[in-house]
Write a structure and sequence with these properties.
The chain is mainly beta and 176 residues long. It is built from 3 helices and 13 strands. 11% of the residues lie in helices and 41% in strands. Strand 4 and strand 5 form a beta hairpin. The longest helix has 9 residues. It is globular and about 55 Å long.
Length: 176
C-alpha cells in the first residue's frame, strides 16, 4: 500500500444524516444537503452547489434563491429532482411542483407545499475553498411558514440513495 502523504484525510460520510432542502433558482429546482445557518443576525445561510451544476450558473446570474423544507411525505419528488437536469427539462413541471411568485425575489419562484421557505439573496461566493463545490453566502430577506421542530418529519439524507426521518428509512430507486 502506498503511503498517503496528503495533508487532509479522505472524505467519509460519518457526519450524515443531513436535512435535505429543495432549492429554487429562477424556475429551476434541486435538492441540497450541503448547507448550514452561519449567522442569526444578520440571518444567513451557507449553501454549497456542485461546480458545473446548472443551478449554480443560474445563482450566479440571478443572485438569489429560495430554500424550501418539505415534509417526509414529499421525499420522492424532492429526491427525484436531483436526478434530472434543469438544462434540458422543466423539473418543477415534470415532477408536479407548483411555482408561485416570491415576495422579495425578482426571478426566483417559490415551490408550493413546503413547510418553511427562506427567500435569500446572494451575498458572496467563497472562492478557492473547494474543487467540487461553490460555497455561497445567502442573506435571508423573507421567511414563510413556521412549524415546531417536534411536529416535523424532515427528509434526512443518509448517503447515496438512502434517506430517513424520525423512526423511518427509505431508499430511492433510480429506476422509477
Amino acid at each position: 500500500m502506498k503511503p498517503d502523504n496528503s495533508p487532509n484525510a479522505k472524505f467519509i460520510s460519518s457526519f450524515f444524516p443531513q436535512q435535505i432542502m429543495l432549492v429554487s433558482v429562477g424556475e429551476n429546482i434541486l435538492p441540497m444537503g450541503y448547507w448550514t445557518v452561519i449567522s442569526k443576525d444578520p440571518f444567513r445561510f451557507l449553501i454549497c452547489m456542485q461546480v458545473g451544476n446548472h443551478s449554480l450558473s443560474l445563482l450566479r446570474k440571478y443572485k438569489e434563491a429560495a430554500l424550501h423544507f418539505f415534509p417526509w411525505s414529499e421525499r420522492e419528488r424532492v429526491v427525484k429532482a436531483g436526478y434530472v437536469s434543469g438544462r434540458t427539462v422543466n423539473k418543477a413541471q415534470m415532477l408536479g411542483f407548483e411555482l408561485i411568485t416570491a415576495q422579495r425575489l425578482q426571478h426566483t419562484r417559490l415551490v408550493v407545499g413546503a413547510e418553511c421557505i427562506f427567500e435569500t439573496v446572494f451575498n458572496r461566493e467563497l472562492m478557492n475553498i473547494s474543487r467540487e463545490f461553490a460555497p455561497c453566502v445567502m442573506d435571508v430577506v423573507a421567511t414563510h411558514g413556521e412549524i415546531k421542530p417536534v411536529e416535523r418529519k424532515p427528509i434526512l439524507y443518509l448517503s447515496m440513495e438512502d434517506f430517513a426521518t424520525t423512526g423511518e428509512t427509505w431508499t430511492y430507486d433510480k429506476q422509477l
